[in-house]
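Escalated from tier 1: MRU holo job.
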Amino acid sequence: MAIGKPMISFHDGPMKIKGSAQRTIWLNDDGWSVGIIDQTRLPHRFESVTLKTVAEAAHAISHMLVRGAPLIGATAAYGLALAVREDASDAYLKHAYDLLHETRPTAINLRWALDEMTRHLLPLPPEQRPASAYQRAAEIAEEDVEINQAIGRHGLAIIKAISGNKSPGERINVLTHCNAGWLATVDWGTATAPIYMAHDAGIPVHVWVDETRPRNQGASLTSWELAQHGVPYTLIPDNTGGHLMQHGKVDVCIVGTDRTTADGDVCNKIGTYLKALAAHDNGVPFYVALPSPTIDFRVRDGVKEIPIEQRGGDEVSHMTGLTRDGRIETVEIAARGTPVANYAFDVTPSRLVTGLITERGIIAANGPAIAAAFPERAKAS
Ligand code: MRU
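Tier 2 regenerated the structure:
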């Protein structure tokens, strides 16, 4: 069944591969199947995958072909569109919701997108659901791009202010963790949007990229996308940030988030908390780029209330990379049978966060400031 292209105009984003605009998720020319980049193959291979069923969308999220809170949300939205194309009944919609919801527990954008789609679809008669689902999924994707652009504009002011206190041409060092970049969103990225805008504005910005063990999203993804855009960067082992901060080599930390509580506690990739502690100890500003769908108004205490995903031990005991003769291989780096713990996220308490860079401006990481910036979301929860 052809659904037809959603009635929505797409803006050309900044991300280009070999000169052509490229998003992380798109509707194919057939008008219904969904294209994604297989991020498990980066940086060594750039390959796209076509999703044709909700089961394939769920697999893409759980196996991290797509990852990053906003992109997980957009993929879930398109996943529900694929589901109602398969079967538009209430029962199948519920099945699809549950299937997608159980893929990854921490990033709240997943539940946000599923709730948003369901609220939109349930009142409609089944025959109207497919076209409407594709339309709403496309809007969710487009909204993500607009949110990230706005985050970029607000975050740019921070980088400009730092630059104003430096000698002309002196570089501004930004430290980031994991991949909160273009690849974690539909376009622009959250933490990277201010960086791309600063670079495009001619500000000499340089990024310290945490490798982000165990899956190495920094090494494999952030480094790759910064290089695509021509932004100077240096890849560092995860434990290097504190040393750099002690030596005045970090002007600002900007990270992303998978879930931020109503009181401003920030859950993000494991290791973020340690960077926030080091930043606090060294007087380095620590900002979190926060799109509003990543706020969970139902929880207040992040340490106690946010479910932390635990992933397979293989991600820690093994590493995957490119061999000298061009093959992608996985090797074991710990003795066989080594017990492993693999917590994928941690929580940075709000007191360690200098500010939240949202689409509505930079706000304090506390309940009143968050509720004042997003009163409609706070009230609805
Ligand atoms: O496990 P991942 O790769 O999905 O984790 C991604 C992160 O932790 C990002 O920092 C976060 O999703 C913010 S994305 C803009």
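Residues 322 and 328 are 5 Å apart (CA to CA).
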